[in-house]
Automatic annotation (TrEMBL), chain A:
GO process annotations (BP): cellular respiration; small molecule metabolic process
Organism: Syntrophotalea carbinolica (strain DSM 2380 / NBRC 103641 / GraBd1) (Pelobacter carbinolicus)
Record's keyword terms, sorted: Oxidoreductase
UniProt entry tagged with the keyword NAD: no
Gene3D superfamilies: 3.40.50.970
InterPro entries in alphabetical order: 2-oxoacid:Fd_oxidoreductase, THDP-binding, TPP_enzyme_TPP-bd
Residues annotated as domain Thiamine pyrophosphate enzyme TPP-binding: 67-213
Molecular function via GO: oxidoreductase activity, acting on the aldehyde or oxo group of donors, iron-sulfur protein as acceptor; thiamine pyrophosphate binding
Protein name: 2-oxoacid:ferredoxin oxidoreductase, thiamin diphosphate-binding subunit
Automatic annotation (TrEMBL), chain B:
Example of a GO MF term: oxidoreductase activity
Gene3D superfamilies: 3.40.50.920, 3.40.50.970
Taxonomic source organism: Syntrophotalea carbinolica (strain DSM 2380 / NBRC 103641 / GraBd1) (Pelobacter carbinolicus)
NCBIfam families the record matches: PRK07119.1
CDD domains attached to this UniProt entry: TPP_PYR_PFOR_IOR-alpha_like (cd07034)
InterPro entries reported for this sequence: 2-oxoacid_oxidoreductase, PFOR_II, Pyrv_Fd/Flavodoxin_OxRdtase_N, THDP-binding, Transketo_C/PFOR_II
Domain Pyruvate flavodoxin/ferredoxin oxidoreductase pyrimidine binding: 16-182
Coiled-coil annotated spans: none
Protein name: 2-oxoacid:ferredoxin oxidoreductase, alpha subunit
Keywords: Oxidoreductase
Domain Pyruvate:ferredoxin oxidoreductase core residue range list: 249-336
Pfam family, one: POR_N
Gene expressing this chain: vorA
Length: 252, 355
């Protein structure tokens, strides 16, 4: 190779070279890449264990070249607890969607955070159940039409969307809680930095770290990838403001 | 002479587990098994182990899934209603081939039921409490000594076959105290290495995935035949039972766990009266000792199955017995005052012996 040629962009080592099954415009691919980059940057691929969840991201082991355990729906934080207690020096992360984490797994995420379990949790919020075909999620916005809220989510009947990043920030055991988005290159770069920090905190044994990522589900939203991407910034962020809600490393 | 201790049944399980190298325990309190988490919370830190009181039985079994997948020797314990909640995790562990020991100190149900003696979780334990069709290894101790010894065995069988193993006890066994000789644990030499566990890739060419999802064409069927072959191997190699007095028996009694203790006393009473009564006591409920029933009932076709429920194991006895066998049942379904005493069983022996 010409010695003047430099590699400026390549597939992260933590990702396998395989085609994706995700729909066009879905943000799982982007978030997978950001997680893999964090693993590469911290040079922890050999000691990382990922915990898959039920939903579109269930095939984690098809994409990440790391050890993976597949957890039952919502239980990833409990499975991660088991793995981390056996291998405290491993980097253990869960990768969960909003149905998984904010509905069936509410108890597991709250108690893992409250125990200060030293794991990293990546939470992709796209306001719907993706894999099961676009049903209402705990994060579905007021008025949003889904297959199980065909008249639009009515908060009087169906309750309010849950702001998980804020909720977990209230717990004493949480070390870090933030919400990011990946709808623009700038925000994706920022999201990558936040995810890196959440992994770095685990390496430095600084406690439970949580990153909520706002993403799009064009297929189930019934939108083009471009319109769906725009919805993340236009509608979702009004209800789910971006920001860092807790960071114990910034305290004096 | 070996040291003899006076130990409560539940504590014997915890002691056996720690002696066998269990270093991870995740559980949630429920009567009548609370001595186990209490013992573990006290002793685990002293041996460098981990005790976590989970937020629910559901979380506890999934912590077990994680720790087992990571290669740890791990245990949880509960009682009927808690085991129901653990069913999801048990199905995932069976499907993902994760070893672990699960203890069920049975209480009567259904629903909240009561907190005393019952054996009504036989179906739940043996037929697969969770979804999808699977089996656990199920061991049924009937003494404090066996609670200790079979817990050790459960860890080894679980590791050897990559299958969760259940200790199926009951409130009587868990709460009683009797003599225990704490045998030292010796690991079998042929336990396979856990090269499938998630430990971080650490130089392996292939990353490990502990999973039960098989979407590819034919993959799931192949996996289920693989699991089936394992159950068949268990039937060939791991049957355990106690059989006494079959040589001259005219009536065979059969019972497992706590019920077998009462039955043994009643059989001794019957023998003193000159009645020729034998006993088959399954120790492995899965794999079920079908062959001994088939053989024994060819000679002695009359069997009385005694259980602390309305009739569960009796179905497996019927399936196992010689086609001409005459299988009868006596049970009490559980609840305070529902425990039969030996005289009551002796009366049943006399009745079934004659007609």
């Amino acid at each position: 190779m010409d010695s003047n040629v430099q590699t400026v962009f390549q597939r992260p080592s933590a990702l396998k070279e395989v085609p994706t099954h995700y729909c066009a415009g879905c943000h799982h691919g982007t978030v997978h890449r950001l997680v893999a980059e964090a693993i590469d940057l911290l040079d922890v691929q050999q000691q990382t264990v990922g915990i898959g969840s039920v939903g579109c991201s269930v095939l984690l082991y098809d994409y990440f070249d790391i050890d993976v355990v597949e957890a039952p729906h919502g239980r990833a934080p409990a499975v991660a607890t088991g793995v981390k207690r056996v291998h405290p020096d491993n980097v253990v992360f869960t990768y969960q969607g909003d149905g998984d984490l904010a509905a069936i797994g509410t108890a597991e995420i709250i108690h893992a955070a409250n125990r200060g379990e030293p794991i990293t949790v990546i939470f992709l919020n796209n306001t719907t159940y993706g894999m099961t075909g676009g049903q209402m999620a705990p994060t579905t916005l007021p008025g949003q039409v889904t297959t199980t809220s065909p008249y639009g989510r009515d908060v009087a009947k169906e309750g309010h969307p849950i702001r998980v990043a804020e909720l977990l920030a209230m717990l004493d055991g949480t070390g870090f809680s933030a919400r990011v988005a990946v709808d623009t290159p700038k925000r994706a770069i920022e999201a990558g930095r936040t995810i890196l920090k959440a992994f770095e905190m685990q390496v430095k044994k600084q406690g439970f770290a949580f990153v909520e990522v706002l993403g799009a589900c064009p297929t189930n939203w019934g939108m083009s990838p471009i319109d769906a991407n725009a919805r993340v910034g236009n509608e979702m962020m009004d209800f789910f403001p971006l920001g860092v809600y807790k960071d114990i490393t910034t305290k004096g | 002479m070996k040291k003899r201790l006076f130990v409560k049944g539940n504590e014997a399980i915890a002691m056996g587990a720690i002696e066998a190298g269990c270093r991870y325990y995740f559980g949630y309190p429920i009567t009548p098994q609370n001595d186990i988490p209490e013992y573990m919370s006290r002793e685990m830190p002293l041996v460098g182990g981990t005790f976590v009181q989970a937020e629910s039985e559901v979380a506890a079994i999934n912590m077990v899934l994680g720790a087992g997948a990571a290669g740890g020797r791990v245990m949880t314990s509960s009682s009927g209603p808690g085991i129901s909640l653990k069913a999801e995790g048990m199905s995932f562990m069976a499907g993902s081939e994760v070893p672990a020991v699960i203890v069920n100190i049975q209480r009567p149900g259904p629903g909240l039921g009561g907190i005393d003696v019952s054996q009504a979780d036989y179906f739940q334990a043996v037929k697969g409490a969770g979804h999808g069709g699977y089996h656990l290894i199920v061991l049924a101790p009937h003494s404090v000594q066996e609670l200790y010894d079979l817990t050790m065995l459960a860890f080894d069988l679980s590791d050897r076959y990559r299958i969760p193993a259940m200790i199926l006890g009951d409130a009587m066994l868990g709460q009683m105290k009797e003599a225990l000789v704490p045998n030292s644990y010796r690991a079998p030499e042929d336990l396979p290495a856990k090269d499938w566990a998630v430990t971080g890739k650490r130089g392996r060419i292939r990353s490990n995935a502990v999973k039960s999802l098989y979407l590819g064409d034919g993959e799931l069927e192949a996996h289920n035949w693989h699991l089936h072959a394992k159950y068949e191997r268990l039937k060939e190699r791991e049957i355990r039972f106690e059989a006494t007095g079959l040589e001259d028996a005219e009536l065979i009694l059969t019972a497992f766990g706590g019920a077998a203790r009462i039955v043994k006393t009643a059989i001794a009473m019957a023998r003193r009266e000159g009645l020729k009564v034998g006993l088959i006591r399954p120790i492995t409920l899965y794999p079920f000792p079908a062959e001994i029933y088939r053989k024994a009932t060819a000679e002695t076709p009359k069997v009385l199955c005694v259980e602390l429920n309305n009739g569960q194991m009796v179905e497996d006895v019927r399936l196992s017995a010689h086609p001409g066998a005459d299988i009868r049942f006596y049970g009490r379904p559980g609840g305070t005052g529902s425990l039969p005493n030996p005289e009551e069983i002796f009366e049943q022996i006399c009745k079934h012996y004659k007609d």
